[in-house]
Design brief:
Elements (H helix, E strand, L loop, with lengths): L1 E2 L2 E2 L2 E7 L5 E9 L5 E8 L2 E10 L5 E11 L19 E12 L8 E2 L1
Antiparallel strand pairs: 1-2, 3-4, 4-5, 5-6, 6-7, 7-8, 8-9
């Protein structure tokens, strides 16, 4: 592609879905100065993590990891109790967390989904 008079190349190697979008494990590269090199897990064209990435021109690096969590207390936060009631089953889930790991600071990170 050509943006602002500067040529760049985008490529992807890895698994794809039936529409040809990145899906599964793969490697994306965009060699524009503000492009990104990303290796990790994709879902229907979107990077979902875990992954590692860096900006092509600056070298700033990012990482997204998956964190498991358990919420085992169902008592209201405004009602302190020495013993919890545990009337409901614990809730469990997985959250993806992306953060800057080197280079410039990005105010929108860390970001949890």
């Amino acid at each position: 592609s050509k943006l602002g008079g500067q040529r760049s190349t985008c490529s992807y190697r890895g698994a794809v879905d039936i529409f040809g979008r990145p899906h599964g494990y793969g490697h994306w590269m965009d060699d524009h100065f503000n492009g990104e090199i990303l290796t990790g897990w994709w879902e229907h064209g979107l990077p979902v993590g875990p992954f590692r990435s860096r900006e092509y021109g600056t070298g700033y690096a990012f990482s997204k990891c998956m964190l498991g969590y358990v919420i085992a207390n169902d008592d209201p936060i405004h009602r302190p109790a020495f013993f919890t009631t545990q009337d409901q089953d614990p809730r469990v889930g997985v959250a993806g967390v992306e953060c800057s790991i080197s280079g410039g600071f990005f105010s929108h990170l860390p970001k949890a989904e």
